[in-house]
Amino acid sequence: MGVEGKERHRDLETGAQVLSGNMGKTIQRLRKAYNLSLSELAEQSGVAKSIISQIERNETNPTLATIWRLSQALDVSIERVLASADEEPFIEKSSKADTPILVSDDGKMKLAIIGWIKTIEWLQWYDVQSEPGGVLDSDSHQRGSVECLSVLEGEFEVEVGGVTQQAKAGESLRYRCDRPHSVRCIGDKPGRATMVCILKAAVMD
Question: What sequence ranges are listed for the domain HTH cro/C1-type (predicted)?
Answer without folding.
Answer: 27-81
